[in-house]
Amino acid sequence: MAADAEVEALLALAKDAASRAGELLLQGRSSLDRDVDVSAKTTPTDVVTRLDLESERLIRDVLQQARPGDQVLGEEQGSTGAAGRVRWVVDPLDGSVNYLFGIPAWSVSVAAQVDGRTVVGVVTVPEWGRTYWATRGGGSFRDGARLRASDQADLSLALVATGFAYDAEHRAAQAAAVGKMLGRVRDIRRLGSAALDLCLLAEGAVDAYYERGLSEWDHAAGALVAAEAGAAVTVAGDLLVGSGARLATRFRHLIQAVGA
To answer: Where a domain ends, among 146, 181, 205?
Structure first.
């Protein structure tokens, strides 16, 4: 397990990298040309912008300068560096479609893992002026204020966040599951950034969150933020399920019942 001093150093570096990337993205969005600076990945609606790539390069540069040789896994450039004690997991722009269309619900996510366990998670939401962070065993915070997940125990009153895949067939199945769920919870929210959803779970703004098809960079930082705020978060295969602790068993049963 990493020593306290090492974790604090990793946290400071993660905050610095995420903050610099957030500033780059804020400054660069007005110059983004949808006809020139945007390309498709898995489907025509799964986009990557020039700024996604620039943000990841910046984060990698910050990490490399401070800790040359650490392994980095990023959404846009994959895994680089030799395996060692410390591994970084980076989403340089979570919510690219929101970013492209001027919707402020997008984030930058940086996590640090030591010996295979995530010990630091930082998620910054530049247009909201928020930064969330957590250290393993050290609690979860937003801009210095400690976070606590929801204590809601009544499933019918739970506000639930989720996300959808880009593949049309998968989206249809997800929509069917949401349709079955809607009458059994307070309501559903779809923000478009998994890292942000997990941070909202951490601060009790939503009572539960689930999503299928996430990659490690989507949830590495946010899952730690949520867990350190007292949320129950599990990843089984490609399904992430999180909720306030009092709701956990009921919510997992609902996920199974609706086929989410």
So the answer is: 146
Q: Is 234 helix (H, G, I), strand (E, B) or coil?
A: strand
DSSP string, 131-149: EEEEETTTEEEETTEE---
Q: How many domains does the chain have?
A: 2
Rounded CA-CA distance 225/229 in Å is 6
Residues 84 and 137 grouped into a single domain: yes
pLDDT per residue as tens digits for the range 224-258: 999 999 999 999 988 999 999 999 999 999 999 99
Parallel, antiparallel, or unpaired for β 117-125 and 107-114?
Answer: antiparallel
In a shared domain, residues 176 and 216: yes
- Which domain covers residue 66, as residue numbers? 4-146
> How far is CA 2 from its chain centroid?
23
Query: What pLDDT does 166 receive?
Result: 85
Q: What number of other Cβ atoms are within 10 A of residue 119's Cβ? A: 22
Structure tokens at 44: 């025509």
| 139 φ/ψ angles, rounded to the nearest 5 degrees | 95, 175
Given pLDDT bands bounded at 50, 70 and 90, which one contains residue 62?
very high
Q: Which of 87, 95, 131, 93 is nearest to 111 (CA)?
A: 87
Q: Tell me the CA end-to-end span of the chain in Å, nearest whole number.
A: 35
Tokens of 72: 């980095």
